[in-house]
Amino acid sequence: MIEIAILLVLGSGLLHSVWNLFTKKSLNKNVFLWTIHLFSSALLLPYLWTEFDRHPLEPEGYTLLGISFMFQIGYIFLLSKAYQYGEMSQVYPMMRGLGALLVPVCSVLLFQESLSAIGWFGLGLIVLGLFTIAFYRMDPKNMPVKAITAAVGVGVCITGYTLTDKTIMEQGHMTPLALLEISNLSYVIALLIPALTSRQIKQEWVRNWKLILAGTFCSPGSYFLFLLSMNIAPLSHISPIREIGTVFGTLFGIWLLKEQQGFMRVTMSACIALGIISIGIWG
């Protein structure tokens, strides 16, 4: 089963980097993110309604769902800000790096999971690579404070909703697909006012309708694969592996967005990949 979980989380990481690339290329980040999750939430709403009808939640389930909902709202709101103020190749590894560090540590404490010595070494390589990519050659005098603040907030929210969603599924409150719809709805609500007040919905659709349609499946598909992997493998093992998306994200930033990179960032991407392999095989 662990092999299946690894394949699921690798696919999740790839899809995650793809829809983040689409977001960075969009005209208005709030409008783009709102639109892709509006479409995906419309597709899954009948399933969520059916699940609530068949399996009503207990009070504890509603509490956990509310916590996850708030973390998801914070995540999508801050994500749009991070991409407004910073480069993808810089803010993406920063926010993923914080999540990569906090989620396994908290999983060990909360869910009594464990990592082998090589697994902890691999996690260290991943975190080292992520933060080196994020801060390499950053001028301390011109640090994008808003971008860094937003990225740190995203990392905290990632940790919060990941641990909460793991608890929700572990206690049998909701299925992964229903939990995915809750995530979609939180994004739609969080970005509703910024999207509508921007008056750029039509312009975004005309310019990027292909990316919007692709993002409608890539964004929820990414988290759905991760939720499935959480159901069959320890969170402390699979969460760091998902950071393969950072490797793809950095390469996308270099090749497709023409962001200024260097040998160090490519090297650190290889460092992250080595850490992922270490956890996947010996973690």
From TrEMBL:
Keywords: Cell inner membrane, Cell membrane, Lipid A biosynthesis, Lipid biosynthesis, Lipid metabolism, Lipopolysaccharide biosynthesis, Membrane, Transmembrane, Transmembrane helix. It is a multi-pass membrane protein. Belongs to the EamA transporter family. This is EamA family transporter. The lineage of its organism: Bacteria, Bacillati, Bacillota, Bacilli, Bacillales. The keyword Nucleus does not apply. One of its GO terms (molecular function) is transmembrane transporter activity. The chain crosses the membrane at residues 6-22, 31-49, 61-79, 91-111, 117-136, 143-164, 176-197, 209-228, 240-257, 264-282. GO terms for biological process: lipopolysaccharide biosynthetic process. GO terms for cellular component: plasma membrane. It is found in: Cell membrane. Pfam families: EamA (PF00892). The keyword Transmembrane applies. Its main location: membrane. Residues 4-134, 146-279 form the EamA domain.
